[in-house]
Design a protein that fits this description.
The chain is an alpha+beta fold. It is built from 12 helices and 8 strands. It has a 4-stranded antiparallel β-sheet. Helix 2 packs across helix 8, helix 4 runs antiparallel to helix 5 and helix 8 packs antiparallel against helix 9. The longest helix has 41 residues. The two termini are 37 Å apart.
């Protein structure tokens, strides 16, 4: 594992280590999370679409139709999908985006924790699939009745074992070292390509933080402002708690690439610091104060989002 991470994150020909992109390259590791998932929906055959189209006086070639192989509302299947959702949310919460499919950037110091947690998710998924598989026969019997003539025995595997799995690895995103020996010119080109990838990763991280903070601030400010039917608008504790979680994640993953974004995060954090959901419910004055201050933060965020394209151009030119 140590060798893999060192290969993944080894800086190549970086002359400005103070740049955010260089910091990403030297402190983060590339990680990929993938799922193998049994499809629970299947398209109708051309003959079945023709038959369905007849009831509407249409032609089958202009009809798109499918069927569910079994009841996906079943609690056993929901338990399987819940593990996938939790694993994906955890992975995204511990990582930054990277401009290649399925790959994100994680802190090198978090690799052991990620490895252990993903192992736990994999065990939970295997147990949930085993429980679903134990009731799969009954689900197929129910599907036979629910689908009628659309039911096809060939659509169903004998067992679900191995059809719902998750895997993760730490791929190298750096130019291979052997390329330096084979073709120095091509190696330099690959170094430039990777450098551009990390520049883009910085922009993606900024966009992610700006968008998420904007949504959280806007939602809480809206729920705290005004009345609904003569009463203060209702809001969930999570409206405040989600902001607190964002501040923690921003502090952990912040790449220190945008002073204005940092200032707005600090300002928003100061607005809600020490303020609990119940305090906001009990005091209309506090609600008004927090709502007004968050609205000002939101205006500044909106202005920063509008100005981002020009700033990105200037950064690339520099």
């Amino acid at each position: 594992m140590t060798t893999l991470i060192e290969e993944t994150t080894r800086p190549l020909e970086i002359h400005e280590p103070e740049l955010p992109a260089a910091r990403l390259r030297t402190t983060m590791a590339a990680m990929r999370l993938q799922f193998t998932w049994f499809g629970t929906r299947k398209s109708l055959s051309p003959q079945q679409k023709d038959q369905a189209a007849q009831s509407f006086g249409a032609e089958g070639q202009f009809l798109s139709a499918g069927k569910k192989l079994f009841d996906t509302r079943h609690h056993r299947f929901k338990a399987v999908t819940a593990v996938r959702h939790r694993a994906t949310a955890y992975f995204q919460g511990m990582s930054l985006p990277y401009p290649e499919p399925a790959i994100r950037l994680v802190r090198q110091e978090d690799v052991d924790e990620l490895q252990a947690r993903m192992g736990q998710f994999a065990e939970e998924l295997a147990a949930a699939v085993e429980a679903l598989d134990a009731e799969f026969y009954e689900l197929r019997l129910a599907a036979r009745e629910q689908l009628g003539r659309l039911y096809c025995e060939a659509d169903y595997p004998a067992s679900l074992a191995g059809l719902f799995t998750m895997a993760w690895d730490f791929p190298s995103v750096e130019p291979p070292e052997y390329l330096r020996r084979l073709s120095p010119q091509l190696y330099r080109q690959e170094c430039q390509r990777v450098s551009a990838r990390f520049d883009e990763a910085v922009q993606l991280a900024e966009q992610m933080f700006l968008s998420e903070l904007g949504e959280l601030v806007s939602h809480l400010a809206e729920r705290l402002s005004g009345d609904a039917d003569g009463k203060p608008k209702a809001f969930r504790d999570s409206s405040v708690e989600n902001l607190t979680e964002f501040f923690q994640r921003f502090s952990r993953l912040n790449i220190r690439s945008n002073d204005e974004l940092q200032a707005l995060v600090d300002e928003a954090q100061a607005v809600v610091r020490g303020v609990g959901p119940q305090q906001l419910r009990d005091s209309s004055a506090l609600r008004g104060q927090v709502s007004g201050e968050l609205a000002r933060v939101q205006d500044a965020l909106d202005a920063l989002m509008v100005d981002r394209p020009r700033r990105n151009i200037l950064r690339r030119a520099k």
